[in-house]
Amino acid sequence: MQVVVLTGGIGSGKSEAAKQFAALGVPVVDVDAIAHQLTAKGQALLAQIQLLFGTEFLLADGNLDRAKLGAQVFAHPEQRQKLESLMHPAIYETAKQQLKENAKNSAASYQILVIPLYFESTRYQDLADKVLVIDCPEVLQIERAMQRNGSTAASVQAVMQAQVSRAQRLDGADEVIDNQGSLAALQEKVGLIHKKIIKTCIVNK
To answer: Partner of 178 at 20 to 30 A CA spacing, among 21, 58, 60, 152?
Structure first.
């Protein structure tokens, strides 16, 4: 089963595109979802984060205060590096296991691996058969990210600066979906890419 990496900058529409692939019967492995699972209340990784950063990054109910920790590590690159060194290996191993299970249990021709920071790390590149970039103008990225979670323009721009440039993502893409239109337009484009990937999978069998 081929693995198609789905990536794109903040606010580009990765999550919505992933939902639409899933609706077409394509198995989806999402590293952000894995990160949430591994840092849920009661998980060993959350206890390690607490030891590293302190209890002030926990909510009253014992869950991780993701917004507070995110703001902290983006403001302090050395702390961000510590957090990534802790989390990334565990996320990678879980993602690999989920891909393996999908290949074993699903009859689909391919599966989607959603990685926001695919180009920023070499860790996942040996897993990808194809790279699909969801793209839109940076102004639209900022607008969507602000609408989605109430972020300020400055905080969204800080995240964008920590990611590779739009030009670098486009240069590394095998396929691109332009997502500056409506939800219906995105759905149509996902459907077309889906058919194209299936044809490629059949040819390469």
So the answer is: 152
